[in-house]
Amino acid sequence: MSRDNSGNDCNNTNTNCTGSENNNNDNDASATAHTTQAPSSNTTVPAFPVLQRFGLADLDLSKEEDNNRFKRLLGELIAKQQQHSGKRNAIEFIQPSQNVSTTAVAVRSHKSHKAFKTYHQMNPYLGDVVATLDDDKKVGAQRLSDYLAKEHPNEFVEAAKSSGVAVCGVLDKTEGAALFTDAGLKDEQWNTIMRHLRHKFDSKIAVSLKQVKGKCRDGEDIQEQIRKTKRPRGSYKKEEK
């Protein structure tokens, strides 16, 4: 991990690398990078032949001095490659264990969302992550979106909403119970509404009716949720005025 002090907006931000590989013999590029096979050899190869050549194989990275020395060396090597390639974030290297050329992408952490947005406007490194996932950027974007939707569904939906994309989450049992109670629905009416909404949005709309009715019997938080729905929010607030 290295330090990125490239701008006032992201001083002292950490820099990490997300790497990936894509074997040319595999038509299903399920990993995240462009990979080419390096020349093979039947001879025994030392663990770190290049480092040994420059007298660096014995660096003890558990020692701060050696570790900092190694990171400076790595930083200069990456800077040299990027100077040649013209790419600000993509890093290509050969994995010794697999003998393949792999592309990694340098990603950064920021102290605030504002710092992230300001820096990312100048250097959109997440675009390089998408491009590294597959030769087809649409496929790369789909893979990243699939991961975020499955692993971070709430954040995924909120980010989509803030970007103006009409994405809705799933009604939890409290929200479902509030709808069921406020509209005075019967079971058949609930099922009919859910069927139409599922057809429209092609996705799950709410938790099961059993969970909703269980929450109705419990009674807690339902009235508060109903009150929340009477306070317009978001992009449709102006339209209701």
User: For the report, how would you describe the main beta sheet?
Assistant: 5 strands, antiparallel
Structural class: alpha+beta
How many DSSP H or I helices? 11
> Element order, helices and strands?
EEEHHEEHHHHHHHHH
Share of residues in strands: 5-15%
Q: What is the number of E strands? A: 5
Distance between the termini: 51 Å
Helix percent reads: 40-55%
Mean pLDDT across the residues is: 79
Rg estimate, integer Å? 26 Å
- Runs in which pLDDT lies below 50 for 5 or more consecutive residues are 1-14, 21-36
Categorize the overall geometry.
Answer: elongated
Give a brief outline of the structure.
The chain has 241 residues and is an alpha+beta fold. The chain has helices at residues 49-53, 64-85, 113-122, 125-133, 137-151, 153-162, 173-182, 187-201, 209-218, 222-229, 237-240, and strands at 2-4, 13-20, 36-37, 90-95, 100-108.
List its traits.
about 240 residues; 5-stranded antiparallel sheet; 11 helices; about 50% helix; disordered N terminus
Q: Which helices and strands appear, and what pairs or packs with what?
A:
Elements: E1 2-4, E2 13-20, E3 36-37, H1 49-53, H2 64-85, E4 90-95, E5 100-108, H3 113-122, H4 125-133, H5 137-151, H6 153-162, H7 173-182, H8 187-201, H9 209-218, H10 222-229, H11 237-240
Antiparallel strand pairs: 1-2, 2-5, 3-5, 4-5
